[in-house]
Design a protein that fits this description.
homodimer; alpha/beta; 12 helices; about 40% helix; globular; binds adenosine-5'-triphosphate; binds magnesium ion
């Protein structure tokens, strides 16, 4: 059955969406079938793969509010072996719509349960906030991947995030584990990156992936072409790093 | 009376906090008295100036929930002419606490109204989301400053943000204007920055500040020392850019 991964960090701009897109592509490259769920109303994961957020048909909002099956909104992407449940403009209002439902925290868990035989991995991109959408991701997921930008402000929110994950595990989802913290936008030209990386490894040890994603302009350019960095520039440092991360992930999950 | 500025963008990691801290310091350097309000529960603006978010006393949460006067929680910072109403751990739960109050959208407006004679500028740092805290900032403010990272995903959210500001102006705060969009993390080594900057200037014209903030590692290092870049490295490109932005801002507001 599928390994369901929530990609979470309430700190903004730390590479959640970039990691969802490029890890999905890297896992697909290694013959895994992958479903991405774009839980961020900004919809960057959808746009980053050239998928529209304005369909007039049923969309992710209807899955949350009316219990429409997730499989009916899934689309293929330009990447082989990668499908997506895209975001939608309507998602900006979804939190208010489900706020009075007693099962508001498990709407996504229910929706993905029928799909876990259809994919090897389900990656959920989350918004920059510990809101009800992120809680839904933590409840539906088997594990959490925390992208951590190698900068000062990004360190600050980490302990709050780890507490929230523990809370979700205790109250909503006992099987939830932290796959790990993934260091990203590592810039070897500046000592701040090295300091943050050393600090995190000292405190969290093995919970930190060995693979570090370097700051690499090809990664930032790729979404403007609607493609993951692996197909935009396969030989770039960014592509190689995400392929290495996929290897390490598969090893941790016993799929290698 | 004080010019109240909301620094807003729901896209994460685009430089909202960095701009609040460094613009405050630059305005203070130009003899303006400045109050910062840290409306983000992450509290990066507070930590970035070395101010604690864990006071056992009354804090910003009590201002929102119990109507405690904002002036009673204001602290001095290490920067002359810059005071702060810091964030607090309790603020993570403030939205739920005020969600049933009929005046939930104007709690901050009421709180700052008594202070507008005490400062030349009040800068409000917002979280990466168009939630009730950001709505409070848009209601209390006279104008909006939108930091825009020169990258692809950051462009995507801009039209949604401008619509939300129009909505706040129509329904909550008729005096609200957009001071401008400020391009930041401009990296002249990569063509993506130039493309985004050209695109934004083409669509928004004069609404875009002439001053661009360059990507500059001294800006990212400064908060780990609890200081604005102006006092961490006064001669850096980052400091000079924020001083230039302050000049441009003062000109737009008729204070020069
Ligand atoms: N390793 C990298 N090298 C260079 N640029 C990167 C890298 N990772 C991400 N970026 C860029 O940094 C910006 C922030 O990344 P991204 O949007 O993926 O973060 P996020 O955590 O999803 O943001 P949000 O909190 O708004 O959802 C984007 O413009 C992206 O292209
Ligand atoms: N001009 C710049 N040059 C280099 N680094 C910068 C610049 N501006 C901001 N940064 C760094 O980029 C990161 C994101 O900036 P910041 O935290 O201010 O954004 P934000 O919009 O407040 O994020 P959030 O959405 O989480 O509130 C920080 O680590 C900051 O130090
Ligand atoms: Mg994102
Ligand atoms: Mg911030």
């Amino acid at each position: 059955t599928a390994r369901i991964l929530a990609i979470v960090n309430q700190k903004g701009g730390v590479g959640k969406t970039t990691t969802t897109i490029n890890l999905a592509a890297a896992l697909a490259f290694k013959n895994q079938s992958v479903l991405m769920v774009d839980l961020d109303p900004q919809g960057n994961a959808s746009t980053g793969l050239g998928v529209s957020k304005n369909t007039p048909n049923q969309n992710l909002f209807d899955v949350f509010v009316d219990g429409v099956g997730l499989e009916s909104i899934i689309q293929k992407t330009s990447v082989e072996n990668v499908d997506i449940a895209p975001s939608h403009m309507d998602m900006a209002g979804v939190e208010i719509e489900i706020s009075q439902k007693s099962d508001r925290a498990i709407r996504l868990k229910t929706a993905v349960s029928g799909l876990s035989k259809a994919y090897d991995y389900i990656l959920i991109d989350c918004p920059p906030s510990l809101n009800m959408l992120t809680i839904n991701a933590l409840t539906a997921a088997r594990s959490v991947l925390v992208p951590l930008q190698c900068e000062f402000f990004a360190l600050e929110g980490l302990s709050q995030l780890l507490k929230t994950v523990e809370m979700a595990k205790a109250n909503l989802n006992p099987q939830l584990v932290i796959d790990g913290v993934m260091l990203t936008m590592y810039d070897q030209r500046n000592r701040l990156s090295a300091q943050v990386a050393a600090d995190v490894r000292k405190h969290l040890g093995r919970a930190v992936f060995k693979t570090m994603i370097p700051r690499n302009v090809r990664i930032a350019e790729a979404p403007s072409f609607g493609r993951p960095v692996l197909s935009y520039d396969a030989k770039s440092k960014g592509s190689l790093a995400y392929l290495q991360l996929a290897d390490e992930m598969l090893l941790r999950h016993g799929k290698r």
